[in-house]
Amino acid sequence: MTDHSHHPPVKAPGPSAPGTPFDAEIDVKRIVEIGAWLAAITVAAGIVGFFIYKGLGGWSERSDPKPSPLAEATIPIEVPSPRLQLTPELDLQALRRDNQERLASWGWVDKSAGVAHMPVEEAIARLAVPEPAPTAAAPAAVAPVPEPAPADPHAPAAHPAAGSAGSAGSGH
Fold first, then answer.
1. Within 13 Å of residue 123, how many CA atoms lie on the same side as its CB?
2. Which of its termini does the chain have fewer beta carbons within 10 Å around, N or C?
3. Spatial separation of the C-alpha atoms in residues 171 and 55, rounded to whole Å
């Protein structure tokens, strides 16, 4: 029996015929295309997953009940840590020196507002000795000095002239 089929003979798996390249059976273009599709689908899935994650996170926060104001009041307040001085003695000396310089010198506190500071001795001297009255103005009438209230509320009030004479003659 002779085989008269018109089909080409099927090549058995195994090494290629001599003279043909080794990777003749591998379709590189199709492999690269499939790899590109896989990479694109992976990136798209990551982006979709990110937006789903953000959306569900926001939905979860919105569905949480608001905390009670009493519960917020019991949250302990964190006190800031102390700022320790490395050389407290030197810092105290510098503070006292700066304070003494300010108390003994002239300077501006707020120049735009016209506020200045002056030495303490100068301020005491200005407050202890009243400034003379302006000479151009008419002399001010001398106001009588109020007398101290008598010790006995039922005693008659002493006349100013009598009170000075009586105290001089009393021998105190």
1. 9
2. N
3. 103
Tokens of 10: 């099927």
User: Which neighbouring-strand residues pair with 58?
Assistant: none
pLDDT at 167: 44
The reported pTM is 0.28
Q: How far apart are alpha carbons 149 and 167 in whole angstroms?
A: 16
CA 91 to chain CA centroid, nearest Å: 25
Closest CA to 106 of 93, 96, 121: 121
Q: Where are the domains of the chain?
A: 28-64, 89-130
CB neighbours (10 Å) of residue 113? Answer: 8
